[in-house]
Every structure is written in C-alpha cells, then in structure tokens.
Amino acid sequence: MPTDFTTKLNDYVARVEEGLDRYVPSARTRPVRLHEAMRYSLQAGGKRLRPVLVLASAELWPPAADPLPAAVAVECLHTYSLIHDDLPCMDNDDLRRGRPTVHKAFDEATALLAGDALLTQAFALIATHYAAQPVLANALGRELGDAAGSRRLIGGQMEDLLAEKKAGATADELEFIHLNKTAAMIEASLVMGGLCGGADEASVAGLRAVGRRLGLAFQIIDDILDVTGDNATLGKTAGKDAQAGKTTYVKLHGLATAQRLAHEQTDAAIEALQKLPGDHAFLAALARSMETRIK
Ligand code: GRG
Question: Looking at residue 122, what is its pLDDT?
Fold first, then answer.
C-alpha cells in the first residue's frame, strides 16, 4: 500500500481512538464494572473501518460539521452488535478482537448491559454533539436508527439465526442477511459522513450505492478469511462458519467464485465512488486494501 494511504489511515484511526476515549465515559465512572466492560471491548483494537469511513466520507466536502462524534457513535453501535453477537444465545464465541469475548472476561449479564449501554450511548452522542444543528442531528439519528434497526442490522441477525436453525440459507436469504447484517452499517457510515459534510440528496444516494457494494465485498472477504485465515491474524475464531454449518459465499459458490465476486463488488464500489464530488483517492485505496487481505 502507498505510504500516503497508510499515513492517512493511521491518522484517521488515531482520531477515532482519541474520540472514543473522549466521548465514552471513563472506566472509573460508576458503575465501574459496566464502564470497564464497555471500554474493554471498545479498546480491544478493532480495525475501525466504519468510523474511518465516516471521517473520510465527510472530507469529500469542505469542512461543515465535525464528523468525529458521529464516527464514535458508529463504532459504539458496531461494538455493541459484536458483544451481543458473541453471547452464548447467539454465536457463542470465546474470542473477539484478539481477546476473550466480554461475557468470558466479565459475565453474560455484564456483556448484555455493556452492549445495551454502547447502543444507547451512540444516540446520546448524536443528540448531544449536534444539538446546535438540529436538522443534521435528526438526519444522523435517523440514518443510524434505520441501519441498526429491525429491518436492517437486527433483521439481518434474525434471519442469520433462523437460517442456521434450518441448517442453510438460499442465495436470496444470504443476500438479505449480508446486505443488512453487514452492509447496512457500512452504508450508514458513509452516509453519516456525507451528512456531516453537507452532501445533497444525489450524493447521499451515491454514498449508499458505494456502501452497498463495499459492504458486500467486505462480507465476501470475511467469508473467505473464515476459511483461509487463522485465529491469530483474524483476532476471532477461524473456521467458525463451517463448524456452525453456516451458508456463506464460499459454501454457496466455492472459494474461487467468492474471490471473483469480492473483486467485482470492490470494482463496482470504486466505480460508484467516481460519481461523487471531492478527492476519492483515500476511499478507493481503502476499498483495495480490504481486498488485499484475501490475496
Ligand atoms: C447482535 C444485533 C446484533 C447484530 C450482530 C455484527 C454482527 C451482527 C455479527 C458479527 C458477525 C459477523 C460476521 C458480522 C458481519 C459483519 C462483520 C464482519 C463484523 C465484524 O466487523 P470487523 O471485521 O470487526 O470490522 P472489527 O473488530 O475490526 O471492528
């Protein structure tokens, strides 16, 4: 990867880390155990893809509103979904972000509450930090609420659990699951960045198109890595999908076709980016960098 891409990515990630530290209650806040659990998971070193997308998308436009609180809100919401996904009643996983999952390091009730608190914190952050721009606050809250709600993130998770129970999903069900469980938050990240930048309706639609493609590419790559990666590099349990008998792009189409589909979706995302204003070089390089993880 070119060094200016890496420098910029590190810069964005550093801003996100600083924002998480600033906007999430400290681990000394009462009840200490709850805030420790929230921070344990948040600070376990995720890739920060979604908040970086918020920051980079906002910068397609001249500075308008500070996108950092929105970026932190997105990472809080994403982290809640991971904590709850790992619970014994869902995916029952022991390892996440290279560490024992929250219910293993603390206990199930604390993990449930830490997830609830991060979800709530996301909306409180938006209402608080964009209070002086109520139209923007409303648009950001609506975007995040829609993406994380029963038709999208939670709906995708529900269909995923149902598909697992009946031991398999059709291609149509797989697309629904991935468009909602994975792509919805990636799409919302780009759109929320655009809203902070003052994007008009046509650009918001353009950002959605990029997010849909990027989200699908991300999920296909995740499915491939589940087969080809290991616990140490993934920071989570490799081979979990096959073990659980899950339908994935690899199971449905085979490894080679899944690799081709990941390339096609990445190309389509980069093509859709070209229709947006501003300098897309960083976002295009980010899309390519995701793809190189499977090379
Ligand atoms: C519990 C409502 C609810 C939803 C759970 C996030 C999720 C939905 C499930 C996790 C399992 C999974 C494979 C989700 C697809 C999206 C995905 C690959 C999430 C992991 O995102 P990364 O790789 O994680 O960006 P980091 O840790 O880097 O942030």
Answer: 98
Distance from residue 82's CA to the centre of ligand 1 (Å): 5
With a cut of 50, list the residues of the chain below it in pLDDT.
Answer: none
First to last CA, the chain: 13
Amino acid of residue 267: D
- What is d(CA 113, CA 118) in angstroms, rounded to the nearest whole number? 9
E strands, the chain, are 95-96, 99-100
Q: Angle at the Cα of 79 (from 75 to 85), degrees rounded to 5? A: 145
Pocket test for ligand 1, best of 81, 87, 119 (most atoms within 8 A of CB): 81
Residues whose CB is less than 8 angstroms from the CB of residue 99 and which lie 6 or more positions away in sequence, other chains included:
40, 44, 105, 235
Ligand 1, atom 24: closest residue by C-alpha = 46
In this structure, are residues 199 and 170 in contact, taking their beta carbons and an 8 Å threshold? no
**Residues in a beta bridge with 95:** 100
Would the pTM of this model clear 0.90, i.e. be above it? yes
